[in-house]
Design brief:
By secondary structure, the chain is of the alpha/beta class. About 50% of the residues lie in helices and about 10% in strands. The longest helix has 16 residues. The chain is globular, with a radius of gyration of 14 Å.
């Protein structure tokens, strides 16, 4: 089974966030399948690094498979962003979470995230592992 790992999970581990680090570390450690990241997740995590070599070590290919963002996911992200704007959202371009959620949805991957609410709102059929529910939905 494959799981797309949200950037907030990786960042919580790397920054040793006192509030969150234990849950993401356990979720990653306990996962029995393939862990996946995409270019959007890679970009969000990269902000904390000055050198690409250090980033690549932190999100090593031994731990994370790197998948491209499918074109179908980009289309779905745009549609979800439109729904967000029509609901009063203020951002002027699609948020990274829309690309991440859409990727998990079209690839039928589980999403490991600590911020489940936006994904549940815009991707209701997505299967999640989150701190509020460590079971798959």
């Amino acid at each position: 089974m494959e799981a797309l790992v949200d950037s907030n999970v990786i960042l919580d581990i790397l920054t040793e966030d006192r509030r969150w680090a234990s849950w993401p570390a356990k979720a990653i450690e306990d996962w029995n399948g393939v862990l996946v990241i995409n270019p959007v997740i890679y970009a969000e995590v990269s902000i904390g690094f000055e050198r690409i070599e250090d980033l690549d070590a932190a999100v090593s290919r031994e731990l994370f498979r790197r998948d491209p963002l499918p074109w179908d996911a980009a289309f779905l992200a745009g549609k979800c962003f439109l729904k967000y704007r029509q609901s009063g959202g203020k951002k002027s371009s699609p948020l990274p979470d829309f690309f991440i959620g859409a990727h998990a949805a079209v690839a039928r991957m589980i999403l490991i995230t600590r911020d489940a609410s936006r994904y549940r709102t815009y991707f209701p059929g997505i299967r999640l592992v989150s701190p509020t529910s460590t079971t798959i939905h």
